Amino acid sequence: MACATPRSAIQALLDERKRGASICPSEAARILARDGEDWRKSMPIVHAAVDEMIGEAIVTISWKGQGLRTREGPYRISLTTNASDEP
Q1: I need a labelling partner for 56 at 20 to 30 A (CA). Which of 6, 7, 14, 42 fits?
Q2: Which candidate, 46, 12, 11, places its Cα nearest to that of 26?
Q3: What Cα–Cα distance (Å) separates residue 71 from each residue in 18, 19, 48, 82?
């Protein structure tokens, strides 16, 4: 999967999953990492994209099934109900 931006990587991963499924932010970072590059270096831009997408009500975040209000520590990303209802 080739994605140019963190947002496109997040969206592509979520689009591939079943409705209501979630992804780990590291999955998007791994897509963005160039061959041989440490994917962890991409995590700050993935986190920033998640923050933007939360602000736009595109995604929500949770950990162990519990919704999170702020992005602290480990979390999973899923589409909001409205975002997953879009065609």
Answers
A1: 42
A2: 46
A3: 23, 22, 10, 20
User: What total number of domains does the chain contain?
Assistant: 1
Vertex 56 angle, CA 53 and 59, to 5° = 45
Full residue range of the structural domain in which residue 55 is found = 6-85
pTM exceeds 0.90: no
Is residue 57 a part of any domain in this protein? yes
Count, residues in the chain: 87
Q: Do residues 23 and 76 lie in contact, with contact meaning Cβ atoms separated by under 8 Å?
A: yes
Structure tokens at 13: 């991963």
